[in-house]
Design goal:
The protein is mostly helical. About 80% of the residues lie in helices and about 0% in strands. It contains 35 helices and no strands. Helix 29 runs antiparallel to helix 30. The termini are far apart.
């Protein structure tokens, strides 16, 4: 059958049903190969034909036919109503039985006080047990008032919580030690510890109830029970409750339980983990236990990271972590606070050692300005000068020498000039020779390295009238021959050169 043909038959079957043309509908479903619907419609058409022959009326309007059509449309409530209007109780019950809709079947029988009600209930229960529907069978027993039977079925179905609910609602069941034991064992096996605790508490087996509550993490119930029955256990339970909450990552909730248990170190740890820093400090400050001091460091580090330096300093001091407080201030560039704290708590020698060590660390990290501030704080400026010199930061060397050793300034310039000359950094060396007032040394430097133009320039700028002539003469002599004559003519110094040479004969 093509898809187009199948679609045509489906459309026609729908229209036929709507028009109550059941014979045509039967033919359509036969064409579609829907055997069960064909059989159903065939039965309905037999009724239609029989009613039409016997009464001459339209058989499709007969209640049985209408009910059959409603059932085919899965509108069972409509079918039930059609049967009930005709007082066809047995047919409605039979319909629901065939469909295994036992709840509706029983409801109809109960509504009409059907004489076979008990038999129907028995059949329903038998069907449930045969099909392994123990939970539903238990509900049937419960509705019938057979509570022990219901509990047995709930346990068989692996539903101990449902059995426990029923037992807790019926005093006669909780009076049975065997019943309670079986339910409790099943609950514990299924790890329904809290419900097992409820059951044990109901029969006043408080010790077992407490154990089950603790195993199930139902510490609220455990503490409430202990306050009445085991007051000496309350403190221990509060601690266990706090431990359980920590395992569940509920740090905030754990804090107060640890406090109630008097486990202040655990309360502090939970406060820190929950980032409740103020609460942690509050608990910490109330402790005399020396082992609590280890927490000050971590809390202080938090406040330092938040740049709340004053609080951090107090906490560092309380925990005996002075060096960390000083490091905090130095890292923040707050040298004065660092020094003030250091001299208050350390000897001068220790302060100096600490600052020099920290300055050298900064130097290794190329943080020269910070290192200088530390050297200066402990009045060891010479170490800063040495640092700058070692790293060839000569402007900083001169700046510090000018400020702290002005009498050595010229000597420092001269020393730097010679170092720079040795490194062939001639223009920089010239600057320092000039600053040292040693222009002749600059001229000599340039002469030695055959940098005559620079030597002549320096002599002209700083040596007076005779100096450039002398340099030009020496320059020409180094050239010799025609080049020397040209150079002397360029500067108009030929006669001077002849006279100088004559004087030196």
């Amino acid at each position: 059958m093509s898809l187009e043909t199948e679609a045509m038959w489906k459309t026609l079957s729908k229209l036929a049903l709507e028009a109550q043309q059941l014979h045509i509908a039967e033919r359509c479903f036969a064409a579609l190969g829907d055997v069960s619907t064909v059989r159903f419609l065939h039965q309905a058409n037999q009724i239609v034909d029989k009613v039409s022959q016997e009464t001459g009326d339209d058989g499709t309007l007969f209640y049985k036919v209408q009910a059959q059509v409603a059932m085919m449309d899965k509108n069972f409530k409509l079918a039930e109503m059609l049967y009930m209007e005709q007082n066809a109780i047995d047919e409605a019950i039979e319909m629901y039985q065939e469909l295994h809709m036992w709840d509706d079947c029983i409801a109809v029988a109960e509504a009409k006080a059907h004489p076979e009600l008990n038999s129907l209930r028995g059949n329903y229960y038998q069907w449930l047990t045969e099909t392994g529907q123990d939970e539903k069978a238990g509900e049937v027993k419960e509705n019938e008032g057979d509570f022990q039977g219901a509990i047995n079925l709930y346990l068989k179905a692996g539903l101990p919580a449902k059995a426990a609910r029923l037992a807790l609602s019926r005093p006669e069941l909780t009076n049975s030690a065997d019943t309670v034991s079986r339910i409790a064992a099943s609950l514990i096996k299924g790890e329904f510890y809290e419900r097992a605790g409820d059951l044990y508490e109901k029969i006043r087996n408080n010790q077992r109830a407490l154990e089950c509550y603790c195993k199930g993490g139902a510490f609220r119930k455990a503490v409430e029970l202990a306050r009445v029955s085991f007051p000496a256990e309350v403190v221990k339970l509060e601690e266990a409750w706090g431990d359980y909450l920590v395992q569940q990552k509920q740090m905030d909730a754990a804090i107060n339980h640890f406090i109630e248990a008097g486990c202040y170190l655990k309360a502090i740890e939970a406060s820190i983990a929950a980032r409740q820093w103020k609460k942690a400090v509050q608990i910490l400050d109330s402790q005399d236990d020396s082992s609590a001091g280890r927490f000050y460091l971590k809390i202080a580090q938090h406040y330092a990271s938040m740049q709340d330096y004053e609080v951090a300093e107090q906490l560092f001091e309380k925990g005996g972590h002075i060096k960390e407080a000083i490091d905090m201030y130095t890292s923040a560039g707050r040298w004065e606070e660092a020094h003030k704290l250091a001299v208050k708590c350390m000897t001068e020698e220790e302060v100096t050692t600490l600052y020099v060590s920290r300055a050298q660390e900064l130097e290794r990290d190329s943080k020269f300005k910070e290192a200088e501030r530390l050297f200066s704080t402990v009045k060891l400026t010479d170490l800063a000068i040495t640092m700058y010199k070692k790293n060839q930061m000569f402007d900083d060397v001169i700046r510090l020498v000018a400020k702290h050793h002005p009498d050595l300034l010229a000597e420092t310039h001269l020393h730097l000039a010679k170092e720079l000359e040795a490194e062939s950094r001639f223009s920089e060396a010239e600057y320092h020779f000039m600053e040292a007032g040693e222009w002749k040394a600059a001229v000599h430097m340039y002469r030695v390295h055959d940098m005559w133009e620079d030597a002549h320039r320096v002599a002209t700028s700083h040596g007076g009238a005779g100096a450039p002539k002398q340099v030009a003469y020496l320059w020409a002599r180094s050239l010799g021959g025609e080049a020397a004559v040209k150079l002397l003519n360029k500067f108009g110094l030929l006669d001077y050169a002849v006279e100088t040479a004559s004087n030196n004969l």
